[in-house]
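User: Predict Anthranilate phosphoribosyltransferase's structure from this.
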Amino acid sequence: MICLFSTAIDQAKQGTDLSAEQTSDLIDAMLDGKAKEEQVAELLLALKRKGESVNELVGAAQAMRRHMTPIAHRHTILLDTCGTGGSGSGTFNISTAVAIVAAAAGVAVAKHGNRKASSKTGSADVLEVLGVPIESDASAVAERLDEDSICFCFAAKLHPAMKHVVGVRRKLGVKTLFNLLGPLCNPAGATHQLLGTPTPQTQAMVADAIRQLGTTRSFVVHAEDGQDEVSLSSTTKVVDVKPNQIVQYDWEPADFGLNAVTSDSLLAADPAESAKIICNLFDGQPGPCRDTVVAGTAAALMLVEKCNTLSDAVRLARETIDSGAARNKLDSLRK
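Assistant:
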């Protein structure tokens, strides 16, 4: 074990990428509790300084998937809106609201997420304030997904082996390889992902990784204003990932037929404020927060081919909120 880590650390310090298999073995050792804390810390920092590679991300995700608690379900199409985080934008929980509206529009959703790390409010934090039970065990999560076509997969609960590395990650206090793995390790095995990333470099790496790991179709998005969401304040760069094809294109705010917004109008200071914003827009309050959720939901509906055009997808997203279906879906998620 010592040789496994020392070899990899030396390799990374020399600027050489690890193979997927090598990284997978290292992450397995960490999650089995067989690695010493100082080994884990030195390796993660060496990889960070070198710059993590696609193969390392793929290998790490493969190991994470082996250790997670899987969620069984009946759905052939399953959406996740979990992103990597790390944008530092300070917005309300847009992807969480998008997940609920998409589910209310008829898309099965397994929203993966955790408590806040670098952001002011994580998906688990805001759902807890909204009254959603986030600590449910796997069987309860699976039951909710089958009955209501939406569930929340709490990473801290469904990735129990992460307990072996949480201490060293806190001590390091910097983003590492693990910060990129959440969207690649959905416990319910989402077939489609609307996945936000904080930088163009991360976007390219995650898109390649998710293609290698397997996806029916995913949109990996990054906005030029820095948001890891579909943006109405700037160009959104889209990497459209299919099993044998990656296509890149842009969405402009005007493409959605919605008003342009400023990033400042989407800010939330804490989970309570984020929850209030979500409740208000579900109750029909117009404005930039609602429009941003409509745009994100439209992207999700296009992704799963629920709609053929952005204009049709925007219309369905609006109708889903205006009819009260989104509010009702949140209420069912609270059960």
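The beta strands are 79-80, 109-113, 150-154, 192-196, 217-223, 236-242, 245-251.
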